[in-house]
TrEMBL record:
Keywords assigned by UniProt, alphabetized: Membrane, Transmembrane, Transmembrane helix
Transmembrane segments: 20-48, 76-100
Listed name of the protein: DUF4190 domain-containing protein
Amino acid sequence: MVTSSTRHPLDPDPVRATKASAVFGLGLLSVVTGPFLGGLIPATLALLMARESHRELVAAEGFLLGARRLRNGVRLAWTGIVLSIAALVVLAIVGLLAYARGRGTDFDPLVN
């Protein structure tokens, strides 16, 4: 009687998925560079690579490890995107305020 928890001796050893590690690294990079608007590029790459890595993890049927690293990488990538968008909004507000301050009024100061 063979149970599902025993492995066949010829089964390969589970290995860590390198794409999942790459997704995590790119997600981390996107969080670090997100406030400088540079986080969009690694975040986009991480999300594209995450889709392919997820397919490989499912197809490997447990012989590839890294699902948690993949999930955390995707979360970090989305956080990097949110930080980039927040930085863009802050820059737009600061730019509009600077523009409005520079415009001033066109009235003669002696006019009532």
